[in-house]
Design a protein that fits this description.
By secondary structure, this protein is α+β, with helices and mostly antiparallel strands. It is built from six helices and 14 strands.
Length: 244
């Protein structure tokens, strides 16, 4: 492997690649795939799990025949770190939309925060946020939400395996969480606010792990592009016949 990438960052498979990318703030997962598809000059490129534009962290991108592994990666557990802001709610459950209601927080103690976090552990049913890419009657929920239309959202089975409160700076609470496939951390933040007798939004989120893949081994898109250009140049140099 050349330059910036390691064997953990880029895996060459038979007829394809698996890349670990550290997505930047405000990028969509599609932005990442589109940028890489253009650089790779390969049409078959996909990601193993969407990250919201306001989230950062690990996105697994598969190219070529490696796209066959996307479903298996998506089925693995995920780890996130982030921040929940107590006392307010928004329609999107994060800071993508404006505050729609404010709630009291004076009654919330550090002890209550830790107690409520433990109550979320284990298998449970979770209602996804209305601002999500899930489809109802063939239409994406966020498209209906932006038009002001209501939709019946069925709760889905998930599991929260770990929920650790790492810091409290009222009204903000930092956390680390390990969850099953299909878990919405925005919904967790919203539900956590209700459990604390208040409201809450997800104000920051970073995906740190997907299965055995860790964000510490990932490259940002600028670093990945630099590595890919170095790799292409090296391959060109190695393919040229020696001069007399």
């Amino acid at each position: 492997m050349t330059g910036l990438a390691s064997n953990e960052t880029v895996q060459e498979t038979e007829g394809g690649f698996i890349f670990l990318i550290d997505k930047s703030l405000h990028w969509t997962s599609f932005d990442v795939v589109n940028k890489m598809r253009y650089a790779l000059k390969i049409k078959k490129v996909g990601h193993a799990g969407t990250l919201d534009p306001l989230a950062t962290g690990l996105v697994i991108v598969c190219a070529g025949k490696a796209t066959k592994q996307i479903e298996s990666f998506m089925a693995t557990e995920k780890e996130y770190t982030g921040t929940i802001r107590l006392g307010v709610t928004t329609p999107s459950y994060d800071l993508e939309t404006e505050t729609d209601q404010e709630y009291p927080t004076d009654h919330i103690t550090i002890e209550l925060i830790h107690q409520k976090a433990t109550e979320f552990l284990g298998p449970q049913m979770q209602v996804p946020p209305i601002f999500s890419a899930l489809k109802v009657d063939g239409k994406k929920l966020y498209e209906l939400a932006r038009k002001g239309k209501e939709a019946k959202i069925e709760p889905r089975p998930i599991e929260i395996k770990e929920f650790e409160i790492t810091a409290v700076r009222m009204p903000e609470v930092d956390f680390r969480v390990v969850v099953s496939k299909g878990t919405y951390i925005r919904s967790l933040a919203f539900d956590f606010g209700k459990a604390c007798g208040s409201g809450a939004v997800l104000s920051a989120l970073r995906r740190t792990r997907v299965g055995d893949f860790d964000v510490k081994n990932a490259l940002t898109i600028p670093d990945w592009l630099e590595w890919w250009q170095q790799k292409e140049m090296l391959e060109i140099d190695n393919s040229e016949p020696p001069t007399e």
